[in-house]
Amino acid sequence: MITRIWHGRTKAADADLYLQFLQEKGIQDYINTPGIVEVRIGRNVEADVAHFWTISTWKDMDSITAFAGDPVDKARYYPEDDKFLLEFEPTVLHYETFTPLEIGPDSIVPDSICTDCGTYFPSDKPIPEVCPVCADDRQFVGPEGQTWTSQDKLRYKHNVLIKPIREGLYSLKMNPSFAIGQRAFLYCSEQGNLLWDCIPLLNEPTETFVRGKGGLSGIVLSHPHYYSQMNLWAEAFDCPIYIHESDASWIMDPSPRIQLWKGDTLKLGDATLYNLGGHFPGSCVLQVQDVVNGKGEPARTGDIEPVKSGAGALLAGDTLYIAPSKDFVAVSYSYPNHIPLPGKTVKDIFEKLADIPFDTIYGAFEYQSLEGNAKEILKKSVQRYQEAYGW
Ligand SMILES: [Zn+2]
Ligand SMILES: [Zn+2]
Question: Measured in angstroms, how far is the CA atom of residue 178 from the centroid of ligand 2?
């Protein structure tokens, strides 16, 4: 691995604004370049000036060249830098980076997070021999057999990449990827912020970011594969967790924060939760509005293209599965094990979807974004299913 360090200085009075610029925009090109392993921002505020460092670690020099161009040692600047930086250092520093062999967190908490699905099991009870979520025929145990890890180890080895998706909507994903590798979403609304699905890691920078957007009013889960560390998140933000009652038997870490809901829909502020079933009986999608302002600091207008259609977006988990071609939407009992659903269930799902207003779908994985054309793609997909099942 290679680490790249850039250094710049601003007036101390601009330290917070420049940090916000770096966090929300300046580091996006790093995150979006293949080969990035980690990126962190360092800051030292003195009497009159603030020093900033961006410290990025990469798989190899080719990845850095793809990011920085030629010559690779030349620093990259943005138009916004003109407003803040006191001077423009022409070059950056690169050095080879190695991972220590034996050093890890000194933790007394036993390992109780499944490394295949990310589900947390309460560490005060005996850990099962095999994780029931992975033993189920929708999932699988990896070739090395059942292994476990802990929150401390995850904090040591991973961070969370937060990406603005559009105004008031951010994706959160562990980096390097862990277990199933899903992204969660932070939906910011004046009627209360929601976390859609969950990831197994909650670290200090992520908690600070979510608090800056106004915290959470609730955690809403699409299905059991993404329950992960839901109670850790719910405790940090003092909020309830919404799970459809049909999936209650898959809760491995029961808590009074979990609210089981019944029926087909649940209104949560200006968002609506729909139970579609299929992958799991309680599988859901969350319909969110287009342009909203969070309870906390407003989104930086101009950074994210506002969406104007007014039709709303569906957060789909893997209740709906956008194909890599982005030309097909699948539904399935098990995606990794290729187990189909009965034709009647598929028909029911598509019928329920027909009444929900949206033009965009965001799925559980990074490439799964259908923006503006989701109904069209869905229509084509329903036709393929009709032909296959002979409805
Ligand atoms: Zn598991
Ligand atoms: Zn799943």
Answer: 15
Select from 72, 96, 120 the last residue of a domain. Answer: 96
Residue 361 lies in a domain: yes
Report the percent of the chain where pLDDT is more than 90: 77
**C-alpha span between 204 and 70 (Å, rounded):** 35
Residue 101 lies in a domain: no
- For residues 175 and 271, membership in a common domain is answered with yes
Question: What is the Cα–Cα distance from 91 to 101, expressed in whole angstroms?
Answer: 32
- Distance in Å, CA 224 to ligand 2 centroid: 7
Which ligand is in closest contact with the Cα of 133?
1
Q: Which ligand is nearest to the CA of 331?
A: 2
142 Cα: distance to centroid of ligand 1 (angstroms): 10
> Of 64, 79, 96, which residue is a domain's last?
96
Structural domain of residue 26, as residue ranges?
A: 2-96
CA distance 196 to 315: 7
Return the H-helix or E-strand segment holding 44. Answer: strand 36-45
321 CA distance to ligand 2 middle (Å): 10
- Dump pLDDT digits (tens) for 138-153: 999 999 899 999 998 8
Please indicate, yes or no, whether residues 41 and 188 belong to a single structural domain of this protein. no
Ligand 1 centroid–CA 99 distance in Å is: 27
Please give the radius of gyration of the chain, using alpha carbons only, rounded to the nearest integer: 22
pLDDT digits (tens, 9 = 90+) for 341-380: 999 999 999 999 999 999 999 999 999 999 999 999 999 9
According to the model, what pLDDT value does residue 291 have? 54
Find out whether the peptide bond into 176 is cis, omega within 30 degrees of 0.
yes
